[in-house]
Design brief:
- InterPro entries: Cell_Envelope_Assoc, DUF218, Rossmann-like_a/b/a_fold.
- This is YdcF family protein.
- Pfam families: DUF218.
- The chain is of the alpha/beta class.
- The protein has one domain: 3-Layer(aba) Sandwich (Rossmann fold).
- 45% of the residues lie in helices and 13% in strands.
- It contains seven helices and five strands.
- Strands 3-2-1-4-5 form a five-stranded parallel beta sheet, with helices on both faces.
- Helix 5 links the parallel strand 4 and strand 5.
- Helix 4 crosses helix 5 and helix 5 packs parallel to helix 6.
Length: 193
């Protein structure tokens, strides 16, 4: 009887592990863009994120773009690059405090509250979309209407077409599980102001 229970537990554990690994390859289920109050461009990645945010802006999906975090030192997430892509300065909202996807969400929602925004298109790299959706939905708790838009790499390639796709997969796999387990609550707590 004890052996049978042990075999069942091992089989269930193996099924969970296999399912988790298979699911980890599906990162980029992008939503169809809809008119929103603001586009939120998450910092990090390459120029593809800002290029996608600019494309959505020029197609009229929103009148404002939040850059979270804005960085003069990191060109792909700078106001300068956004302006070069044709986003006017008065349409750019800069956020400087975020240090992770979790604090991106916290700081973005503070800005949305300040401006009275109810809806947003959240733009990030295709490999980062699943984790962004997880944390933005968790922090939002249904308060905002959010759509998640995947940006391809600056060269137009998907995450799994890149030469370093194995590193991308591994990084997102362990970070996603850290977020699912709520470890961001202990590691990256936003400053109270």
């Amino acid at each position: 009887m004890k052996i049978r229970i042990a075999v069942i537990i091992i089989c269930i554990t193996l099924m969970l592990i296999v399912t988790s690994v298979i699911d980890s390859f599906n990162h980029s289920e992008t939503d169809r863009p809809e008119k929103a109050d603001v586009i939120i461009m998450l910092g990090g990645g390459d120029k593809g994120r800002m290029e996608k945010a600019a494309e959505l802006y020029h197609e009229g999906y929103a009148d404002y773009v939040i850059i979270t975090p804005e960085s003069e030192d990191i060109y792909p997430q700078s106001t300068e690059f956004a302006r070069e892509l044709g986003i006017p300065e008065d349409a750019i909202i800069e956020e400087y405090e975020a240090t992770s996807t979790y604090t991106n969400a916290v700081e973005s929602f503070k800005i949305m509250d300040e401006y009275g925004f109810d809806s947003a298109l959240v733009v990030t790299s295709d490999y980062h979309l699943k984790r962004s959706k997880l944390i933005y939905d968790r922090v939002s708790d249904g308060q905002y209407d959010l759509k998640y838009i995947a940006a391809l790499g600056a060269g137009g390639e998907k995450w799994n077409e890149r030469s370093y796709a194995d590193r991308i997969w591994f990084n997102e796999f362990y970070k996603l599980w850290g977020y699912r387990l709520g470890l961001y609550n202990f590691i990256d707590v936003p400053d109270e102001k």
